Design the sequence.
């Protein structure tokens, strides 16, 4: 379990507990957090679950895989350091306190 804070583009913040084994994307969609669409349901096939990992967490979360990096090129918002597809970040205790920002749009 990890407490994850999602910061929408508007600045609205949501702090939720995400069970170990769930993805950061699932933590958002199961709690009705806008800004993560996740059209493909976590299949690494849509890039509508783009998020920006806060700088302090980038090393702990780790880099995207090669396939994820390729999919990130299709995201609607410009990628930055810390860009990840949130369906590919699987939560465990080490991510307790994680902060991710959400892009203005996923389309
Ligand atoms: Fe589709 Fe993450 S939900 S790539």
Sequence:
């Amino acid at each position: 379990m990890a407490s994850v804070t999602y910061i929408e583009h508007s600045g609205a913040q949501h702090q939720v507990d995400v069970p170990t084994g769930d993805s950061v994307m699932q933590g958002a969609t199961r709690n009705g957090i806008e800004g993560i669409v996740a059209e493909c349901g976590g299949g690494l096939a849509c890039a509508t679950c783009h998020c920006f990992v806060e700088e302090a967490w980038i090393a702990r979360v780790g880099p995207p895989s090669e396939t994820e990096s390729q999919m990130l090129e299709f995201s609607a918002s410009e990628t930055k350091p810390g860009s990840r597809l949130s369906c590919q970040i699987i939560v465990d205790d080490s991510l307790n306190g994680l902060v991710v920002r959400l892009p203005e749009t996923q389309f």
Summary: The mean pLDDT is 97. The CA atoms of residues 20 and 91 lie 5 Å apart. The radius of gyration is 12 Å.
